[in-house]
Amino acid sequence: MKTLLALLTLCWSCAAASATPSAPSAPSIPYTLDNTEVRDVHATALKRDYQVFVALPDSYRTSTRRYPVVFVVDANYAFPVARNIASRLHRHAGMEEAIVVGLSYAQGDSGSYSRGRDYTPSVPRASATRYHSDMPGRAPAFGEAAAYARFIASDVFPLIAAGYRADMGRKIFVGHSYGGLLGLQVLLTNPRTFEHYILGSPSLWFDRGVMFDREQAYAAAHKEMPASVFFGIGARETLAPGKTRSRSKEQADMVADLREFQASLAAHRYRGLSTTVKVFADEDHASVFPLVFTHGLRAYLKSTK
């Protein structure tokens, strides 16, 4: 009987202990990147709101000098990558410091919807059923790259010039995939918008290769293209065996497209244009961006090592 009573007492004690509320855990603290800021920007002409992410160099608070500025699109992914690579290249490889500015997607839009509209140069021909919107009740939108480029120049540039010690004579554009198309739109419209372009895996297949046509049109009207351009792409961004190459996403050989585009630039012998194309072994469309960005910075920024 005593043994049974002891067991019942022990079970009651365990049950009471398990029913006792545990002490509340400490509130979680959001992770932030050092020396970064977020600024809200209203795109007046576009009637949309965006955010601009700004990463300042380590020495910014203790110096008085001005810094080159890196503008990177697809900022929700690319900004922390670019900011950290730029910082490491300075700290461990003696690379010149730079302000990194990330351009976010439009407020209220999904990333896919925002970039499809803002980064593409045209509305795709004969593709009404190929593209689908991930925004319920909204049809896919394309072809506003020219307007978005004007937003960068008219709204973002003045914000950065007024708010930071930025050397606006040394501006670098960084874009990958659709972002690379946006960079080409700027290059073939007003190349002086940026001094250096880092273009990774540009989607040259888009709209049946419309950028090839636009480069030919630019060449017919211009003899110069004052800019330096670093093109980078993964060696695996080629056409799958058994497929015939075409100007379509499904049958595009992106490496061949890029080499063809570079060859056309070279054939036109634009005054003031310098280009580099680098194909990164064993990399594909998803993995190549950090390498493109690293080598693209090295092609332009100064280094002490």
Written description of the protein model:
This protein is an alpha/beta fold and 305 residues long. It has one domain: Rossmann fold, CATH 3.40.50. 38% of the residues lie in helices and 21% in strands. The chain contains eight helices and eight strands, in the order H-E-E-E-H-E-H-H-E-H-E-H-E-H-E-H. Strands 1-2-4-3-5-6-7-8 form an eight-stranded mixed beta sheet, sandwiched between helices. The N and C termini lie far apart (84 Å). The model is unreliable at 1-20 (pLDDT under 50). Belongs to the esterase D family. InterPro entries: AB_hydrolase_fold, Esterase-like, Siderophore_Hydrolase_D. This is Alpha/beta hydrolase. Residues 1-19 form the signal peptide. GO terms for molecular function: hydrolase activity, acting on ester bonds.
